Amino acid sequence: MIRTLLVGFGFSAKTFHLPFLQSIADFDLVGVVSSRPDAVTDMLPGMTVYSSMSKALAAAEIDLVVITTPNTLHAMQARQALMFHCHVLVEKPFTLSSDDAKALVSLAKEKQRVLCVYQNRRFDGDFLTVKKLIANNKVGHVRRFVSRFDRFRPTPRDRWRENAGPGAGILWDLGPHLFDQAVQLFGLPKQVLGVVQTLREGGQSDDSFDITLFYENTTVTLGSSPFQAQQTIRFDLQGDKGSYRKLGLDPQENQLKQGLTFDDSQWAVTPSHQHGQLSNGEELHTIQTEHGGYLQFYDRLAQTLSGDGEIPASGESVLPVIQLIELALESAETGKTLPVYLDMKENN
Known about the structure:
By secondary structure, this protein is an alpha/beta fold.
């Protein structure tokens, strides 16, 4: 059994982590760190609730610490857990600076502990479909790739993710997913051009971005808008043999919000009307979307901690994502297209 401490008990903890911790027998949730003990015990009767990570780590034997707190706390709390010789699963972004990211990767190696980042969208069904299409050369050499995560949220909400402050804003919220998927598919680009804006009336942090990653013979565009009221274009994959276009977002997040159980026949199944289409310029084929695998993410983590498996998203593999976000922000501030540094390629 993997004795697990859940740090934070907000939306992320309850939606993206608790269902898996409760469903997979390998994990034994032994405590929760929260400033709202009543909210924890209402959902988890009898659960031990700690007011701080320090108290929890001092009082209980912990194998794995799952960190779901606001972005500004991730690096500090991950370091604290590693110093207590615990394995760590930390929500994205796992740090807000590449220096902190490098330090955590080094510390995890020194302590011989697993540092995993919750890049769960490596296991989106549509992303797995794109990976498969590229691997099977279905579009030929990829020349252009568009990856978007648009929503219709024209009015800012009063929450830390949208208020002013370090780690707030949509680039730090959704950017880690889109950058990570791009790096997984194509590696590191040669140059980065970023446009990061606050477009909503009364907005306190960035709510829109368009990032261009330039590769040798491929251009990747990442973006997010809060004004898309229709079904979003999720992926547009264009190659010299054809193209693939997919609308709509992976269903797993909404299914988790709705409380769908993992044994439900519709779990991680993309509705038929949202399957993507592949064309060679003459024929058009509907491509059935792969089943998503958020459950697989936690299964693989359990296997890794048991000594038999590859980390689903190691801190080292996510380090370039933090560096690219920093470059995108610098590009947006200066209006310049920036080169990707050599040391990033050495760390990938």
